């Protein structure tokens, strides 16, 4: 009888679980001979407690699964947004010595160079006014570096400069 309650709890609402518990008790009372009314009532009460506890666990699992599905959907949407941003916005990551660690395709296109060819070279070769000593400074927190003028001018592979 308990499997019927579990299946109901996994698939339906509490009212359906209550009906499954009641039908299970009625079927049990009809099929299993009892010594007394107290024995039948005790058995029914214990079954109700155990079945309802199991049903609550199943309902909780179902709710957790729904919440996990929602979080998975949100994470996938945020991941898609982040991937879109990172493929369209020029991003260059640097080592602490100012060498280029990575450059995404948008940045490579902006500078007119191959993204793998510049890996390990100094960033100030692309942005002459860039202060390499600013990359690693003891008082500096990690994050974006900013120019004193508010922008740097970059130099493309063909020598053309751009803000």
UniProtKB/TrEMBL annotation:
<dbReference type="InterPro" id="IPR035965">
    <property type="entry name" value="PAS-like_dom_sf"/>
</dbReference>
<dbReference type="InterPro" id="IPR000014">
    <property type="entry name" value="PAS"/>
</dbReference>
<feature type="domain" description="PAS">
    <location>
        <begin position="78"/>
        <end position="139"/>
    </location>
</feature>
<protein>
    <submittedName>
        <fullName>PAS domain-containing protein</fullName>
    </submittedName>
</protein>
<dbReference type="Pfam" id="PF13188">
    <property type="entry name" value="PAS_8"/>
</dbReference>
């Amino acid at each position: 009888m308990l499997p019927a309650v579990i299946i109901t709890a996994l698939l339906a609402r509490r009212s359906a679980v209550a009906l499954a518990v009641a039908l299970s008790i009625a079927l049990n009372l009809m099929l299993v001979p009892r010594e007394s009314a107290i024995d039948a009532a005790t058995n029914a009460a214990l079954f109700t407690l155990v079945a309802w506890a199991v049903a609550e666990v199943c309902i909780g699992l179902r709710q957790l699964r729904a919440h996990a599905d929602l979080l998975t959907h949100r994470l996938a949407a945020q991941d898609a947004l982040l991937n879109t941003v990172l493929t369209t916005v020029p991003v260059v990551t640097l080592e602490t010595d100012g060498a280029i660690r990575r450059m995404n395709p948008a940045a490579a296109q902006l500078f007119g160079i191959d993204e793998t060819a510049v890996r390990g070279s100094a960033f100030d070769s692309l942005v002459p006014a860039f202060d390499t000593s600013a990359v690693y400074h003891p008082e500096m927190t990690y994050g974006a570096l900013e120019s004193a003028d508010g922008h740097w001018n970059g130099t493309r592979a063909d020598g053309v400069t751009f803000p």
